[in-house]
Specification:
Helix content: 25-40%
Number of strands: 9
Shape: globular
Low-confidence stretches: none
Mean pLDDT: 91
Strand order of the largest sheet: 1-5-4
Number of domains: 2
């Protein structure tokens, strides 16, 4: 039996969070094991329950998605994330990554949805080759790791290559663009 993943993170459907909730997307430098994903999710849940800004509890949630992404979301309707609280989250992820031997700050790893509805990952040079070889075409759905709100996650998480910022990274046009 093959495991099928929903291609949109569950955080996008969390109705108790405002559509304007702030969102940060982190890409892992490798695929996590199921055990690692579960441990990291538990650590993220604990962090979110304890996360504060100026001694005010933040309404926060996190998700390990597809064993390769980390999503961190804060609903700022009752208390806003401050520079210091955002720094806390970054330090937490750096320390967690060091313990788990994974880099959550891999900015040069890109994802798209392949023909089999499974995320594929590549570096920038590999992405350019995929476009040149037409494995990625104008309508190929790209993971938009630049989404900044819960609403963006729901509406703009997967965008066609022809409309995505990935075109600049690939440096060439996709067939049909």
């Amino acid at each position: 039996m093959t495991t099928t993943y929903d291609l949109t993170p569950h955080l996008a459907q969390r109705t108790e969070f405002s559509p304007d909730s702030r969102l940060w997307v982190y890409v892992c430098d490798r695929e996590l094991t199921e055990v690692e994903s579960n441990v990291i999710q538990q650590e993220l849940d604990l962090f979110c329950r304890q996360w504060t800004a100026h001694n005010l509890a933040l309404k926060a949630a996190a998700e390990v998605f597809y064993q390769q992404f980390i999503f961190l979301m804060v609903d700022e309707t009752s208390a806003g994330a401050s520079g210091c609280s955002i720094d806390k989250s970054v330090h937490f992820l750096e320390q967690l990554g060091a313990r788990m031997h994974v880099d959550f700050f891999e900015r040069k790893r890109f994802a798209w949805v392949g023909e089999d509805d499974v995320f594929q990952f590549s570096t920038a040079p590999e992405l350019a080759v995929q476009v040149q070889n037409q494995a990625i075409q104008a309508t190929t759905r790209m993971a938009n790791t630049l989404v900044q709100t819960k609403q963006d996650l729901a509406d703009k998480w997967l965008v066609p290559f022809q409309q995505s910022w990935h075109r600049r990274i690939a440096g060439i046009k996709a067939k049909g663009v």
